């Protein structure tokens, strides 16, 4: 999702089923605990222009997320559990790479609404429907450093033959300390049947892989506790599309025998569309300022 002065380079496929709501222009690239990237490499600064850092208004990092329209961000529902109750307590920082010094490219957007999936289950098997939308108080102006994520189409299928990666401000060796630099890690999509069989060996009732999940992993690297809400991206044609929202993984880091589990975006396209359409109808112009 490398930035470019030519906005046409961010154009997603016209086949998106809700092109009138979600912009067809998007960024293009050349116990159980929640997830954080372990291993991988530092991402090129501002290479992934849809990635945002969900924080408290005091700038404490909580989770990752991806912007999909000027007013809406997709993250994990559990990121909003038992920390702060009010949308006013949150902000999302875009155009960020190093979370310590400012580059001057960052944009801080306050959150005005939190919408968790209505059937989100924080404690049930599989931690069902772990996805949320954040409405921003003001639309974000897209620049070469900030661009919306490309969403998949409902018919997109992702397999181990696809080129995929995860992103996050994560631990590098399971230290339980955040990495201030955005990191990326190449990985494989693991079929749900295989993923389910692998997780069946884990002694926790919540460790169930369901059809609305997608699993990722590579030998020798894994995700670890913390980088929840971050996305896995896969390449389709000349676009990198967001495929899943980080949900859960084993508490110990670097455990490839237990793949990381993400909420599968294609399972929630209708839900995302419904929420944004409903908001646009009740508050004219809300989605696009």
UniProtKB/TrEMBL annotation:
UniProt entry keywords in alphabetical sequence: Disulfide bond, Hydrolase, Protease, Serine protease
CDD domains: Tryp_SPc
Sequence intervals crossing the membrane: none
Pfam families the record matches: Trypsin (PF00089)
Entry keyword annotation includes ATP-binding: no
Family annotation (SMART domains): Tryp_SPc
A GO term, aspect molecular function: serine-type endopeptidase activity
Alphabetized InterPro entries for the sequence: Peptidase_S1_PA (IPR009003), Peptidase_S1_PA_chymotrypsin (IPR043504), Peptidase_S1A (IPR001314), Trypsin_dom (IPR001254), TRYPSIN_HIS (IPR018114)
Limits of the Peptidase S1 domain: 37-277
A biological-process GO annotation: proteolysis
Name of the protein described by the UniProt record: Chymotrypsinogen A-like
Native organism: Lingula anatina (Brachiopod)
Gene giving rise to this polypeptide: LOC106181808
């Amino acid at each position: 999702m490398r930035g470019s002065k030519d906005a046409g380079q961010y154009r997603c496929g016209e086949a998106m089923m809700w092109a009138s709501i979600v912009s067809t222009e998007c960024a293009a690239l050349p116990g159980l605990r929640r997830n954080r990237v372990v291993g991988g490499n530092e991402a090129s600064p501002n290479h992934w222009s849809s990635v945002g850092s969900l924080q408290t208004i005091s700038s404490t990092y909580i989770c990752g997320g991806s912007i999909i329209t000027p007013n809406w961000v997709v993250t994990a529902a559990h990121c909003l559990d038992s920390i702060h109750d009010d949308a006013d307590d949150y902000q999302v920082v875009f155009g960020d790479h190093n979370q310590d010094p400012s580059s001057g490219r960052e944009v801080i957007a306050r959150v005005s609404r939190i919408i968790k999936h209505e059937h989100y289950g924080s404690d049930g098997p599989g931690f069902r429907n772990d996805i949320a939308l954040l409405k921003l108080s003001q639309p974000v102006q897209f620049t070469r450093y900030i661009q919306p994520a490309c969403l998949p189409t409902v018919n997109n299928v992702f397999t181990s033959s696809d080129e995929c990666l995860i992103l996050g401000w994560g631990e590098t060796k399971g230290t339980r300390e955040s990495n201030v630099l955005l990191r990326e890690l190449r990985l494989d999509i693991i079929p749900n049947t295989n993923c389910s069989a692998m997780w069946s060996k884990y002694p926790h009732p919540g460790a169930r892989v369901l059809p609305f999940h997608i699993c990722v992993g590579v030998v020798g690297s894994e995700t670890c506790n913390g980088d929840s809400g971050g996305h896995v991206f896969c390449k389709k044609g000349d676009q990198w599309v967001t495929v899943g929202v980080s949900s859960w993984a084993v508490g110990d880091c670097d455990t490839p025998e237990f793949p990381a589990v993400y909420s599968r975006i294609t399972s929630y396209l209708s839900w995302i569309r419904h929420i944004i359409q409903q908001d646009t109808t009740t508050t004219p112009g809300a989605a696009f300022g």
